[in-house]
Design brief:
Blueprint: E1 2-13, E2 16-28, E3 33-37, H1 44-51, E4 59-64, E5 67-68, H2 74-84, E6 85-89, H3 100-110, H4 115-128, H5 144-156, E7 162-166, H6 174-189, E8 193-197, H7 201-204, E9 209-214, E10 217-223
Parallel strand pairs: 3-8, 3-9, 6-7, 7-8
Antiparallel strand pairs: 1-2, 1-4, 4-5, 9-10
Helix pairs in contact: 3-4, 3-5
């Protein structure tokens, strides 16, 4: 599904190259659940953003579902990720001015899904996450756990093949965190590929493989 070959990403500071990613080689098959770990500043979020096509890179090759990402135009890239990738962020990234219902519906608007079908899909998500009663509330009226559920519902509504999660339980208490991880496990069992960045050994253990980053490069990979 994903092939990263000799990926380098850098910024130039005072004439020197500072590497954000260094010679990354990674292959991820459809249906895998991968955890990315490493100290702060090791390149975890940068790697996730490169995979999610939110960030470019300076050198190397990236194939996603047989498409050569490094060769296609920005517009094709954005079509690719809107169609196949769902993002879940630690800070939720919900739109404060929109209700829960409208937040969940947003990705479908980009995909020109018809009104009646949108309604059915949103209803299905509200139901699945037990947040039907919250659909007319705004994000600020929800707890952290509820906001994260809305964020995940929004990520899932367009039925992505791949979910990218950046510290998905970072702002939650342990019970909420466990619920979110169990949910990811369930989605993975249903065939969704998941790549998560996490500091938590416990959360990392949900993955079938852990990729350890250190100083912008892959230090090693362990299998659970």
């Amino acid at each position: 599904m994903i092939q990263l070959k000799n990926i380098f990403k850098w910024v130039t500071v005072g004439g020197n190259r500072v590497f954000l990613l260094k010679d990354i080689n990674l292959e991820i098959k459809e249906g895998e659940f991968i955890s990315i770990m490493g100290p702060s500043g090791s390149g975890k979020s940068t790697l996730l953003n490169v995979i999610g096509m939110l960030d470019g890179f300076d050198e190397g090759e990236y194939k996603f579902l047989h498409e050569e990402v490094h060769k296609i135009k920005e517009k094709q890239r954005s079509q690719l990720y809107k169609q196949y990738i769902g993002f879940v962020f630690q800070q939720y990234h919900l739109i404060d001015e929109l209700t829960v219902y409208e937040n969940i519906e947003t990705p479908l608007l980009y995909q020109d899904v018809k009104g009646s079908e949108r309604k059915a899909l949103v209803a299905d998500m509200l139901d699945r996450f037990n947040i039907v009663g919250k659909k007319d509330l705004f994000p600020t009226q929800l707890s952290g756990g509820q906001q994260q559920l809305v964020g995940i519902a929004r990520a899932l509504i367009s039925k992505p093949k791949l979910i990218l999660a950046d510290e998905p339980t970072g702002n939650l208490n342990s019970k909420q965190g466990e619920e979110i991880m169990d949910l990811f496990k369930q989605l993975n069992n249903e065939g969704v590929t998941i790549i998560q960045v996490t500091h938590s050994e416990k959360n990392a253990a949900y993955g079938s493989r852990i990729v350890h980053l250190l100083d912008a490069r892959i230090e090693n990979t362990t299998h659970n």
